[in-house]
Design goal:
Layout (H helix, E strand, L loop, with lengths): L2 E4 L6 H10 L15 E4 L10 H17 L3 E4 L3 H11 L6 H8 L4 H6 L2 H8 L4 E4 L2 E4 L13 H13 L3 H10 L13 H12 L3 E4 L4 H4 L9 E3 L4 E3 L12 E3 L3
Parallel strand pairs: 1-2, 2-3, 5-6, 6-8
Antiparallel strand pairs: 1-9, 4-5, 7-8
Helix pairs in contact: 3-4, 3-8
Length: 253
C-alpha cells in the first residue's frame, strides 16, 4: 500500500486539487481514484489562503470515498486548526483568540461557512500518528512530550483541551505550537530531541510540516521534501502560502 503525504495547504484549494490530480489520487470530477493508497495531510488547512473550508470539505469527502474502496485519507492536527477552533468557540468581540486568528491570516468566509460536522471532525483530529514506521507530527517541536509519553496519551490530552471551555488551556496549547526547528542542526540538542521523540512515540523517522522549507533550505519553490538530520527528519511544508506550488510526497517503500 502506497503512502502519500501533503504538507500545510493554508486554504490553497486549487493548488491542492492540481497536486492530487497529478498524483493520480483524484479524478477529473475530484473524486478519490487512489484505490487502496493512504493519503495523509499534516495539518494547517486554514488561514493565509482563500478556501480553508473548501479544503476541509474536500478532505472529509475524500476520506469517505477512500474508505469505501479500502484506501485511507487521514489528517494530523495543526496549530491553525486549533486557532480556528478557538476563534469559533470564544466569540466575544476582540478577544485574544479572535485577534490572533485574524493576525495569522484568518479568513472571514471560513468562519461563516463552517458547519457543526466540520467542527466535530476538526476537534477529533490526532496530534500524532505512527504510519509505515514514521512518526507523523505537525510541528517540529518538543512540546508534545508535555501532553503525554505515548501517542494515545498525547492525542487524548489535546482532544480534552479542544472539548473544554478553559481559555487558559487553549492559550497554553497555542503558545506551545509556536515552537519550531527543534530537530534542525542549528539547535544544540537537535539529534537528542529526535531520538527522544522517536523513543517515546515510535518510528524510525519523523515527518512534519509547520516550518516552510523556504525557511531552512535554499529553495524558493520546493517540489520535494527537505530531508535532514542524517535522514531522520522529513519536512513536507512546501510553503504554498508563500507562492510555491506545493507537492505530494510518496513515502519510499
Amino acid at each position: 500500500m502506497s503512502v502519500y503525504v501533503v504538507g500545510d495547504v493554508h486554504g490553497h484549494l486549487i493548488k491542492l486539487l492540481d497536486l492530487l490530480s497529478e498524483s493520480g489520487l483524484i479524478d477529473e470530477s475530484h473524486h478519490w481514484s487512489g484505490g487502496d493508497a493512504q493519503l495523509w495531510f499534516m495539518g494547517d488547512f486554514f488561514d493565509r489562503g482563500p478556501h480553508g473550508i473548501g479544503v476541509v470539505d474536500l478532505v472529509m469527502r475524500l476520506q469517505g470515498q477512500a474508505d469505501e474502496v479500502g484506501g485511507q485519507v487521514r489528517a494530523i492536527l495543526g496549530n491553525h486548526e486549533i486557532l480556528f477552533l478557538a476563534a469559533h468557540q470564544f466569540t466575544r468581540p476582540n478577544n485574544k483568540f479572535q485577534i490572533s486568528w485574524k493576525r495569522n491570516g484568518g479568513q472571514n468566509p471560513d468562519m461563516a461557512l463552517v458547519t457543526s460536522r466540520q467542527i466535530a471532525w476538526l476537534r477529533n483530529l490526532p496530534a500524532l500518528a505512527c504510519v509505515a514506521d514514521r512518526l507523523f507530527m505537525h510541528a517540529d517541536a518538543m512540546f508534545y512530550l508535555d501532553y503525554g509519553q505515548s501517542i494515545e496519551e498525547v492525542n487524548e490530552s489535546i482532544r480534552e483541551i479542544l472539548r473544554d471551555s478553559q481559555s487558559e488551556d487553549w492559550d497554553r496549547l497555542l503558545d506551545d505550537f509556536s515552537q519550531r526547528m527543534a530537530f534542525s542542526s542549528p539547535h544544540a540538542n537537535g539529534f537528542s530531541n529526535i531520538t527522544e521523540c522517536l523513543g517515546y512515540y515510535g518510528g524510525s523517522q519523523i515527518v512534519h510540516g509547520h516550518t516552510p522549507i523556504q525557511y531552512v533550505a535554499d529553495a524558493i519553490a520546493p517540489k520535494a521534501p527537505f530531508i535532514y538530520a542524517n535522514g531522520l527528519c522529513v519536512n513536507v511544508d512546501g510553503g504554498m502560502y508563500l507562492g510555491a506550488p506545493g507537492f505530494v510526497y510518496r513515502l519510499p517503500d
